[in-house]
Amino acid sequence: MRRRLVWRAARLHESRAETATARTLVFDVPGWPGHVAGQHVDVRLTADDGYTAQRSYSLAAPADGERIELTVETVPDGEVSPYLNEVVEPGDQVEIRGPVGGWFVWRPESKAPVVLVGGGSGIVPLMAMIRARRQAGSRAPFRLLYSLRDQDSRYFAAELRQPEAGLDIAYLYTRATPSGAARPAGRITLADLAEGGWPADFEPDCYVCGPTGFVEAAADLLLALGHPPERIRTERFGPTGG
Length: 242
Known about the structure:
Pfam family, one: FAD_binding_6
Radius of gyration: 18 Å
CATH class of the largest domain: Alpha Beta
CATH superfamily of the largest domain: Nucleotide-binding domain of ferredoxin-NADP reductase (FNR) module
Number of strands: 11
Strand content: 25-35%
GO molecular function, one term: oxidoreductase activity
Number of domains: 2
Largest sheet: 6 strands, antiparallel
Strand order of the largest sheet: 4-3-6-1-2-5
Structural class: alpha/beta
Low-confidence stretches: none
Cofactor: FAD
Shape: globular
Number of helices: 5
Mean pLDDT: 95
Distance between the termini: 32 Å
Protein name: Oxidoreductase
Organism: Nonomuraea turkmeniaca
Helix content: 10-25%
């Protein structure tokens, strides 16, 4: 039987910058039931006149009691993301409902190799999986291909710079590359996935998250490399008003 989702009061504990336009927000949510890496939540804001706005955001970290983390990119002229990133302060409250989703998830008991393919802010649920792997002491081998505009757009930069056994990372820059980068700037290619991912005969679980066009292109490339559709899990997002 599916558990009924309810709105819960969430109090901001901490907010920290990830990039010039994105922040990680840590909320305390009394009664939080826990979640699995890859799930998301709905966030609702209510104005004094009763007007409400809500958006969905991926959870950025594994379950930690009644504390959750969201990493939110500010959408210009948006209704929710600018408030979360520029207005809300520690101690302020919003409403949160979740967790939502059961397909795009990674569970620590899985032993299969994993390919993570993230485009821009699509790294967020994939980071939750990386952190869940670390938290559980899992030895499942992970490979992350992270497509982003330039070095300044990198989420979780300091954390991902730390070496981690069993986690290999390839950065795929689309606009500008850092000094000394061997790969020229450009969109994700078949060669990127062939070199940075796992071969299909290793039977890896593949998770792809990002803008709709990116997700469709990456999933098609994985299929072209022989990965079966049932092992390719996708999560996509597009313009929603923020």
